[in-house]
Amino acid sequence: MSATARPLRIGLLGASRIAESAIVGPAQTLGHRLVAVAARDRGRAEAFAGKYGVERVLDSYDDVINDPEVDVVYNPLANSLHGPWNLAAIRAGKPVLSEKPFARNTIEAREVADAARAAGVTVLEGFHYLFHPLMHRTVELLDAGAIGAVQEVEVVMAMPSPDDGDPRWSYEMAGGALMDLGCYSVHVSRLLGRWCGGTPEITGGRAVLRSPQIDESAVLDMRFPNGARGTQAVSMAAGEFVFSLRIVGDRGSLYLHDYLGPNRDDRLTFVSSSTGAVTVEHLGTRSTYTYQLEAFADTVHNGASLPIDLEDAVDNMRHLDDAYRAIGLEPR
């Protein structure tokens, strides 16, 4: 059944900047309904609802979660509020599409995962890049041995600096470059462990601090069980947006020019080591978030499987905690 014939009724926690691309646009594309929103500032929620066509403004996040007209909850709040409000939605029996990271640390992630499992409630951590044909094609080429044995993985995640008052600069709000961007680089590096003998170990790290306990940028060194090396470089103080992934094998390499946003650049470049031939594929500019919401709705309506589960979320948080220790900081 199409989304238009069977729309999700989505409740939004907060009037966040990311919501336009992450949930509003995809919901409109797929025919889902944005039925309720609440924010700490009701005026901001009303402005958001008017701009994006949300049907009702409610007084609190609890009101959104417990509204009988809300089928699923979208949680794009500050990092420190992901875990608590994901738990609140689980208690109400509402499936959750949560922005990453899943929680502020491993302990909290385990609490959320255990609660979701016990309640039989779907909670999806929003690693939207997984759902796009760009990543599907990458997996296909790796499975086919197109680049041979993987020897090196390089992930770059960079963006211009958020405003000074942004919660991503707050330790209390579980901020930092690794939390905001490193969750992606850790996740895709763990994913690539499938072709490298298993999960990578973080062998070292260094960071530039914005303030005590808050990383403005960081570099992580990794080693995979097969001996492959890896680097993750993240920065929230760059001059431009860069979200690239390079995978080097003994027969060639793959380069995803913008694995996080193929709507901006959908190229996948393959270089053959033996011939030097360069092949560029374009995998489509439909939003990763649209593919993600499509898959989430299929799970909610039909019980379809997802590419990641609750244990993946806990494992990713465990690696993020290790990443912070590697750069000499405390987990969030």
From TrEMBL:
Gene3D superfamilies: Dihydrodipicolinate Reductase, domain 2 (3.30.360.10), NAD(P)-binding Rossmann-like Domain (3.40.50.720). Keywords: Oxidoreductase. The keyword Oxidoreductase applies. The keyword Oxidoreductase applies. Residues 8-127 form the Gfo/Idh/MocA-like oxidoreductase N-terminal domain. Residues 139-254 form the GFO/IDH/MocA-like oxidoreductase domain. One of its GO terms (molecular function) is nucleotide binding. PANTHER family: OXIDOREDUCTASES, TRANS-1,2-DIHYDROBENZENE-1,2-DIOL DEHYDROGENASE. Belongs to the Gfo/Idh/MocA family. This is Putative oxidoreductase. The lineage of its organism: Bacteria, Bacillati, Actinomycetota, Actinomycetes, Mycobacteriales.
